[in-house]
Amino acid sequence: MNNNNEPNITEGRYLNPLTDYGFKKVFGEKDIMIAFLTDLLNPKSAIEDIVFIDKDLVADYEEIRGVIYDLRCKTKDGGEFIVEMQNKGQLNFSDRILFYLSRSFSSQERKGNSTWDYELNPVYGVFFMNFHMKGLKPQAIRTIQLKVDETGEVFSEKLKAFTLELPDFKGKSTEYPKSPIEYWLYNLVNMETMTTALPFQSQQPIFGKVGGISELVHLSEEERMRYNVSLDTYRTNLSVMKNERAEGRAEGIEEGISIGERNSRMATAMQMKTDGLPIEMIQKYTGLTAEDIRDL
Q1: Is the dihedral of CA 214, 215, 221, 227 positive or negative?
Q2: From CA 207, how far away is CA 184, in angstroms rounded?
Q3: pLDDT (tens place) for every residue of the chain, 296 residues total
Q4: Which one, 93, 137, 189, 247, has the greatest CB density within 10 A?
Q5: Which helix H or strand E contains 129, and what residues bound it?
Q6: Beta strand pairing status for 123-129 and 80-86?
Q7: Which is nearest to 142 in space by CA: 153, 129, 158?
Q8: What residues pair up with 14 in beta bridges, in sequence order?
Q9: What does DSSP assign to residue 198?
Q10: What is the largest CA-CA distance in the chain?
Q11: Residue 19 has what DSSP assignment?
Q12: CB distance 122 to 157 below 8 Å
């Protein structure tokens, strides 16, 4: 689907894994998810198995909002992973991360079990972001966890959030990424326009499978239809964000011009007042109010 507001993107060999459909198709594969989590976490022991679980975490009460994740899975030892792709920046995204992790922890409560001693399984949030998080310095890979301010000690290893900011990887050469997780981010961001085999397969052979399931020629007619709908939504979101940024810049320029003009009038009024000209005359030539002029 196309409309005049969508970016002009030529279709390549692979689907776009940043779309809702593409993201779930790629990371919905167990071995791909395990390989990705291994490269992200570098765990002390291997992630032997994961199980995808119901992505909808229903609220306990009607007045409490439920949580919906892109993908949610558990490891063999009970660790839970929330994996989400966000293409549009949100005002309170950091709060959203806290809310997601908190709801997952609270769902572990063992009601009616008097012997439960509050022991929790780890919960990790992995957030792919097609934008830079507001209020923080841009950083491709950010690890967030609870620490003691005074000593820097880790308060708990059971809560971690990883934010993966994608914009910096767009259009870069294959020499740009230097670490296993950067290989993933580079391929995900640039896959839609690639026409050859995915790079970095010698470093991470799983990219061969990622490319195989992502080739457009392998999609059935129904899959292609669902992908096109998802792609249309993705491109519309990009257009909306681009327009919002443009409008924001225009408003900023207009505001800057307005402030500059006022400062110029104030300086002129100050000089006229210093020269002893009456307030009425200063008003006439500067457009300022009598109150503004008296306050100078």
Answers
A1: positive
A2: 9
A3: 444 444 444 568 999 999 999 999 999 999 999 999 999 998 888 898 999 987 665 555 444 445 556 899 999 888 899 999 988 877 789 999 999 999 899 888 887 788 888 899 999 999 999 989 888 899 999 999 999 999 999 999 999 999 999 998 988 899 999 999 999 999 999 999 999 999 999 999 999 999 999 999 999 999 999 999 889 888 887 777 676 666 655 555 455 555 656 665 677 777 777 777 788 877 876 778 888 888 77
A4: 189
A5: strand 123-129
A6: parallel
A7: 129
A8: 215
A9: P
A10: 86
A11: S
A12: yes
Neighbours of 265 (CB within 10 A): 16
Q: Which two tokens stand for residue 23?
A: 């993201």
pTM: 0.73
- The partner residues of 124 in beta bridges, in order of sequence, read 81, 160
Phi-psi group of 160: left, alpha or beta (phi > 0 → left; psi -120 to 50 → alpha; rest → beta)? beta
The crossing angle, in degrees rounded to 10, of helices 221-274 and 20-27 is: 120
Residue type, position 32, single letter: I
> Rounded to an integer, what distance in angstroms lies between the CA atom of residue 13 and that of residue 268?
63
Sign of the four-CA dihedral 57, 63, 64, 67: positive
Q: Which amino acid is at 239?
A: S
Which residue carries 């490269």 as its tokens?
39
